[in-house]
Structure to design on (720 residues):
């Protein structure tokens, strides 16, 4: 089955040549072509007969299925006729990439009109769109939605300049591309005198401009200001010749340069050398964009050369676009978040949600007091993920979460309380699935009529014992459980952005393996990338651990102190109970504080928290001074657990003081590890706040031990 489904917008020379090369390519399926001037019964003749290209495989038959659908080989293609790309539903036809071959959409704004994951523009861009040339800078591709493949001339010139500049120093280069005529030229003179291309291409050599010089600067920035060129159009229908004059600092011979080309990894694919006395038509329908004509090159001496380079400005350029197309797909399938084992093809931006039933697991276990949400940060942190999925036009989205830890149906823990907050951030109506995981819910989802994508909120998933029993269930129990089977039927595609509980083997999280498509959103990506920073051995790190649950944090403390370049500061109740070993040179413990017999009494200063009979409720000034010095000495600061009792205004002062100091550290990477501490932080400030407290600690522990970012993320551990 083809791994890439694409659309082609514009079916002129480049659109046609690209498609002809894809007809027999089983890795790619063309599912939609936009060709306003072409009727479906003309397709086969248009493809099989060509004035220029004679040497391609015509062993195919076009079968007309309906008035706008036809098939060729493994391709089943819808032919559309639209001048406005907004009217083309590329996703409806399964397209993930569009080759933009009209020549009319040369900016990102215009290309955004294509409702598709990726657009490759077959022309130089007229804005700051990133440009990639296969064999030159394609490995720098970083997942951009819209890119330019530049021009045919640039795809011939850039590779040769790249191979030269990799080994030698270019002083300057001057080129003239002797270019075949194009569709923009006229067979006879016309009235328009604004451009020389108004003159007949039959009778003239026509000087013309080229954007190749500026394009070279985009893909080979170190050559900026060193490359100059022009173009002439000549009366041939195809194949062009690049006349390139190069001045090198190194005094090498032409034969030495040829040997450099022959030993390049892309020899015979991007570069070739012809030793025959051939002419332009001999290079028609070739796939190598940079063919050096050895018989025409001149070695001037002292590192100066005249290179003559052939290229098929239609066919080899189309080949280069296809190579970029496949590279984008390879990137999506195999690229991982930097230094991790989490593949980007499981990230929502690289998934297809069009017309899919999407189920999203979030962690909306927010603090509630007197029936009011005290802190909605966990909700707010998921909005970007929801909005992105909505933009891809799924059939519907079902939001799933737990709230509290009920063991049975409990209306006081209903998720209905979340709806006003969700509606505020999403600016749309949320429908509540009050029957939870049930046949009633499945019927409601099945029978809903809608014009736009509806959003549903499922009742508290913890109302079902299967949610937490899942961890201890056998495979047979799981397969035969009615609740689990109904949960699987809610959606086609599963997204987990519930970082705060991803480490738990619960039904709504770990059952990802029951879905054919699954992935994660922006929240998980942000959290994992923060962990990457935390474990960067090249950066100096300070980990501040506070709070009361020493038993939960002891394994984490014992692990963190072994990470290279890391200092550890212990505060809160942990500081009163933790014993530092003589070998623990990188552990610092709070020594003084404030407290009293109980919190009802006014705070008293405690000089030595280890020997006092009083309860310690907050950090002391001397310990804060030591902590501030540690902050100054480190690049990354990670804080988990308060330094005092933040529920009491008298004993929150140390934590507030620390927050103020951290806010001043604009040159450092500051991460707050969820929990109560995060409630003190402005979530829109320069401090990164994690949505998971215990989850972050456990994940850090597992990652550090195993050097694998999948361990501890149950969503991925059994599936990727």
């Amino acid at each position: 089955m083809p791994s890439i489904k694409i659309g082609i917008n514009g079916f002129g020379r480049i659109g046609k040549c690209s498609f002809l090369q894809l007809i027999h390519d089983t890795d790619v399926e063309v599912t939609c072509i936009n060709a306003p001037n072409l009727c479906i019964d003309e397709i086969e003749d248009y493809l099989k007969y060509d004035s220029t290209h004679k040497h391609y495989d015509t062993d195919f038959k076009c079968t007309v299925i309906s008035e706008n659908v036809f098939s060729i080989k493994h391709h089943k293609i819808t032919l559309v006729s639209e001048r406005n790309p907004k009217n083309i539903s590329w996703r409806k036809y399964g397209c993930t990439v569009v080759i933009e071959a009209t020549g009319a959409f040369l900016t990102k704004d215009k290309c955004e009109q294509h409702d598709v994951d990726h657009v490759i523009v077959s022309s130089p861009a007229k804005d700051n769109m990133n440009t990639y040339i296969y064999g030159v800078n394609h490995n720098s591709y970083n997942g951009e939605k819209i890119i330019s493949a530049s021009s045919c001339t640039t795809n011939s010139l850039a590779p040769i300049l790249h191979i030269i500049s990799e080994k030698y120093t270019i002083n300057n280069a001057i080129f003239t591309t002797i270019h075949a005529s194009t569709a923009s030229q006229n067979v006879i003179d016309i009235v328009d005198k604004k451009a020389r291309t108004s003159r007949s291409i039959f009778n003239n050599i026509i000087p013309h401009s080229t954007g190749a010089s500026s394009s070279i600067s985009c893909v080979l920035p170190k050559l900026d200001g060193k490359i100059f060129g022009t173009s002439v159009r000549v009366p041939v229908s195809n194949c062009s010749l690049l006349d390139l004059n190069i001045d090198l600092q190194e005094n090498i011979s032409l034969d030495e340069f040829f040997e450099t080309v022959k030993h390049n990894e892309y020899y015979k694919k991007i570069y070739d050398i012809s030793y025959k006395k051939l002419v332009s038509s001999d290079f028609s329908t070739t796939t190598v964009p940079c063919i050096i004509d050895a018989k025409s090159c001149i070695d001037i001496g002292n590192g100066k050369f005249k290179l003559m380079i052939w290229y098929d400005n239609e066919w080899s350029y189309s080949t280069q676009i296809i190579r970029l197309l496949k590279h984008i797909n390879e990137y999506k399938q195999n690229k991982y978040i930097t230094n991790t084992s989490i593949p980007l093809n499981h990230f929502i931006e690289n998934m297809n949600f069009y017309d899919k039933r999407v189920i999203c697991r979030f962690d909306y276990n927010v603090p509630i007091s007197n029936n009011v949400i005290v802190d909605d940060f966990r909700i707010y942190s998921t909005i970007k993920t929801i909005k992105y999925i909505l933009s891809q036009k799924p059939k519907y989205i079902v939001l799933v979460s737990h709230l509290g830890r009920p063991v049975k149906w409990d209306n006081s823990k209903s998720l209905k309380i979340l709806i006003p907050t969700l509606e505020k951030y999403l600016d749309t109506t949320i429908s509540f699935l009050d029957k939870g995981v049930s046949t009633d819910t499945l019927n409601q989802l099945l029978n809903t009529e809608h014009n736009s994508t509806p959003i549903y909120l499922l009742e508290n998933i913890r109302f079902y014992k299967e949610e937490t029993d899942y961890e201890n269930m056998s495979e047979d129990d799981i397969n035969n459980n009615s609740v689990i089977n109904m949960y699987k039927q809610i959606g086609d595609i599963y997204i987990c952005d519930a970082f705060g509980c991803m480490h738990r083997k619960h039904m709504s999280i770990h059952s990802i393996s029951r879905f054919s498509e699954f992935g994660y959103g922006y929240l998980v990506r942000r959290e994992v990338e923060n962990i990457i920073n935390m474990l960067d051995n090249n950066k100096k790190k300070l980990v501040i651990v506070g709070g009361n649950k020493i038993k939960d944090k002891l394994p984490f403390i014992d692990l963190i102190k072994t990470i290279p370049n890391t200092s550890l500061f212990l505060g809160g109740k942990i500081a009163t109970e933790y014993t530092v070993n003589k070998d623990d040179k990188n552990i610092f413990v709070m020594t003084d504080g404030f407290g009293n017999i109980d919190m009802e009494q006014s705070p008293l200063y405690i000089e030595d928290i280890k020997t006092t009979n009083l309860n310690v409720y907050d950090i002391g000034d001397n310990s804060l001074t030591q902590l501030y010095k540690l902050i100054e000495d480190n690049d990354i600061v990670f804080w988990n657990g308060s330094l005092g009792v933040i529920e009491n205004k008298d004993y929150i002062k140390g934590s507030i003081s620390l927050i103020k100091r951290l806010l001043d550290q604009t040159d450092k990477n500051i991460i707050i590890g969820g929990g109560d501490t995060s409630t003190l932080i402005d979530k829109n400030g320069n401090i990164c706040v994690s949505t998971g407290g215990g989850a972050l600690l456990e994940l850090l522990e597992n990652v550090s031990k195993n050097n694998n970012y999948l361990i501890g993320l149950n969503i991925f551990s059994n599936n990727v």
Observations:
- The chain has four domains: 4-123, 152-315, 344-520, 535-689.
- Residues 160 and 166 are 10 Å apart (CA to CA).
- The first strand starts at residue 4 and ends at 9.
